[in-house]
């Protein structure tokens, strides 16, 4: 059990208490505040880039599938598309 100080009356209160027994001021546990996401934290750029890349990859895959379905009857165009990808990779 850890002790914390009441921000209002400076009384020593258990950190597990929801409010100060003396003045009823709500006790905010710093750890639980962080768990809620917190404010002022720097955005994790790498995480955002990873999410962005996965979204782009999903979108591109989805568009290719849609294109293949749409162009189902146009085999020449599909062949052209496949050749384009194969040539691009080389
Ligand atoms: Zn208090």
Structure overview:
With 90 residues, the protein is mostly helical. 52% of the residues lie in helices and 7% in strands. It has three helices and two strands; from the N terminus they run E-E-H-H-H. It has helices spanning 30-35, 45-70, 75-89, and strands at residues 3-5, 12-14. It has a two-stranded antiparallel sheet with strand order 1-2. A hairpin with a 6-residue loop joins strand 1 and strand 2 (12-14). The longest helix is centred in the middle third of the chain and has 26 residues, at 45-70. The radius of gyration is 29 Å and the shape is rod-shaped. The N and C termini lie far apart (64 Å). The model is unreliable at 33-38 (pLDDT under 50). Zinc ion binds next to loops.
Give keywords.
single chain; 90 residues; mainly alpha; two-stranded antiparallel sheet; 3 helices; 7% strand; rod-shaped; binds zinc ion
């Amino acid at each position: 059990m850890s002790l914390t100080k009441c921000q209002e009356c400076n009384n020593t209160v258990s950190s597990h208490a929801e409010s100060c027994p003396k003045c009823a001021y709500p006790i905010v546990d710093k750890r639980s505040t962080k768990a809620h996401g917190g404010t002022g934290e720097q955005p994790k750029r790498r995480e955002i880039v990873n999410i962005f890349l996965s979204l782009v990859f999903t979108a591109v895959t989805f568009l290719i599938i849609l294109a293949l379905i749409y162009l189902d009857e146009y085999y020449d165009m599909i062949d052209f598309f496949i050749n384009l990808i194969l040539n691009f990779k080389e």
